[in-house]
Design a protein that fits this description.
Keywords: NADP, Oxidoreductase. Belongs to the aldehyde dehydrogenase family. The chain has 15 helices and 26 strands. α3 crosses α7 and α6 crosses α15. It is globular. β5 and β6 form a beta hairpin.
Length: about 500
Amino acid sequence: MSSSNKVFFGELFDAASGSYKSYINGQWLRSCSNKVVTITNPATRKEEFKVQACTREEIDAAYEGCTEAQKIWRQVPLWKRAEALRKVASVLREQRDTIAECLVNEIAKARKDSLSEVDRSADLIEYCAEEGIRLLSKGDFLTSDAFKGTDRTKLCLSSRVPLGNVLCIPPFNYPVNLAVSKIAPALISGNAVLVKPPTQGAVSGLHLAQCFDKAGVFPKGLVNFVTVRASENGDYLAEHPSNNCLSFTGGDVGLSLAKKVGMIPIQMELGGKDACIVCSDADLDLAAKHIIKGGFSYSGQRCTAVKVVLVEGEVADQLIEKVLGGVNKLTVGMPDDNCNITPVISETSANFIEKLVMDAKEKGAKFLTEYRREGNLIWPCLLDHVRPDMDIAWEEPFGPVLPIMRVSNTDQAVEHANKNRVALQSCVFTKDIEKAIKISDSVQSGTVQINGAPARGPDHFPFQGFRDSGIGSQGIANSIGMMTKTKTTVINLNSPSFTV
């Protein structure tokens, strides 16, 4: 970290406790709980950072600040909101190296990919500023005589208005990008935001908070970043009476939160067992390239990673040969060295991955690569002849492990994909566009990629899942729609108290 960045971010750090502060109502505060949350470096497995474990009273104060600031912000002209977001994007670009360094140390993301995440986040904020102006400057004008039996005695004006306070909970794997994908639509829409960064990624999130602070254009309390022990206060954050909207990306905890938050809009993405269907007529070189990229980018720790390959038997051997050749070229090591495969997020995660691999081994899966693990670092593992009775056929490993299932036909592949409880994305490789559309129509997932690996971006594309993969649709326009509601004003022209 450069000396200038140390000065820039110095106020975030509390020397007495050796921990990072939370950002509440425009101030960097040490929690009165005197408790901290420890962040372990996945690569070294040693303590890297500490953040505050905020109390319920501090959460209350943050929500109160949001509520008061939102009353001011909702009256700010749309073009000024957009200008404010552009200033944040500018500060974020200036601090890309510092934030990327945090990503390397907190979540073991390769440095080049960490820099890319920061750049992508700045791009997203800028696009959201422009898209927000286009979407929110529009309204509808209706006359009553369009409906049978009525006269032109009423005029109806409808527009989009903010919900109030939006609680944003991003995941560890994209703690900056998936934070701004929630924050930017909320702010351009006139809402206030309370952000609960993930534990692994919390310091990156607090540096993001500093970018909003240094932009110097938001009312104090409009943007709050609160770090908590999720086991103690996670539910309290979500169920708080001042919470008007929840945008969550993460794991199964989202299922329980969805049942607890009551009648507020919720936007959830909870992962997926993304299936890759390879037809017998596919371009196998293309399919192999995308399977490698889709299955092993960021060590497979992505909700949109290819998590099972369903290949028609007559081309399985050819495809496997090509995929194996690419897997053997992947580099394995530390994130500072920009390796393709870096340590997974935690020992708990590594143990879960190993459990799935060992179950497959016991049940007869063929190992195309040797299973190897050192601490949290797991070498890329390719499994063939995986069957439905193996846990790996259904569970998300969220690591560099890819199962291959041989199927008799595409109907069998679709049937398997549709039985999974998590159905975020899928992909199909074929040269026959009619077949591709037919399969896309049959597969029950939020997105079907044709001749390409699953991917969340570009960030303005709709992004959603089926079944337990989530509720609602993301993407900039969809998020703005979810974080606002329609309000109508009806003018009664025949009212005796109204003079034309």
